[in-house]
Amino acid sequence: MDARPKYISLGPFVPWLQLPKPISWDQVFGRSGPLILEIGFGRGEYLVRQALESPSDNFVGIEIGWISIRKLLRAIARQGIENIRVIQADARVALEWLFPQRSLAMIYSLFPCPWPKKRHHKHRLFSRDFLRLANSRLQVGGELMVVTDHQGYFQWILEQSQRTGFISRVERTGPIFETKYEKKWTELGQREFFQLVFKKVEHIDIPQREEISLNTHKVPEFCPDKLTLKGHKDGAVVEFKETLYDPDRQKAMIRALVVEGALRQDFWVQVVKRGDHWLIGPAKGCSLVPTLGVQKALDLVFEAISSQKSQKRG
Ligand SMILES: C[S@@+](CC[C@H](N)C(=O)[O-])C[C@H]1O[C@@H](n2cnc3c(N)ncnc32)[C@H](O)[C@@H]1O
Q1: Can you list the positions of beta strands (E) in the chain?
Q2: CA of 112 relative to ligand 1 center, distance in Å
């Protein structure tokens, strides 16, 4: 076996955390063209075929799994494809933050996870809220297509689609997409799948989420041994996980988890001695989206350290 590391070209991989949001897709592709999005591309077989068949369209693939992304990046490099870009993110976060309203010509998703158990329905992606978000990011006349093997999920999505600004078309389709999951179900004997096509007829306004400028804090005194941090649960959920302190560098690192809707950010807050004061801010090296929840985490650290001072006085 060849044990040498295999390098892949990260050219089509979009480091969205580091880019201004929403993303300027024309700039990312170096040209303008209809923008088409595949959610949960898996091994990317269909995305690659579509991109080869429509060279003047700009395709974006979104996945949460790195193994899938790596496979797609290899396929893109092998076949010299120039019109695919890849994002690693939850589709809900990507649509909220990375795509302006009315920017997409088409969105599709093949065999999305059906979460068949009732108690897991909350994890299903194509909920009413998500359909409304997809609507706002599509151009009028644009389409969202979902293909599923699961009748229960198909019916559930149809129910969710009420008042989402779409008209729906429902079809039965044979195995025509040639993806891993389609092959899996076909091999198990399923010959027909459910295809839902939602055409946007009315716009739903869901404004682009915006980054904020984070305010850092200064405190005159800090006692790392006595730090007691409390989380927060209103709007953004903020939890503090652990604190590390290096007395030689006079630097504390506090791990924070901030959850705002589908956006889940796990990062470090640093408290570092600078001259006669301590500075509280996000630690260097952590990629994050600056949000109100992140600001709340910084504020909570500031409040906890400031209350040490008043406790000492009292
Ligand atoms: C059942 S697989 C189908 C893969 C592929 N479309 C196929 O037909 O073979 C579902 C895929 O969606 C991805 N996925 C699940 N939830 C997602 C989300 N919220 N955002 C982006 N991708 C997601 C998973 O990582 C997985 O690769």
Answers
A1: 35-39, 58-63, 84-88, 104-110, 138-148, 166-173, 193-200, 217-219, 237-246, 251-260, 263-274, 277-282
A2: 5
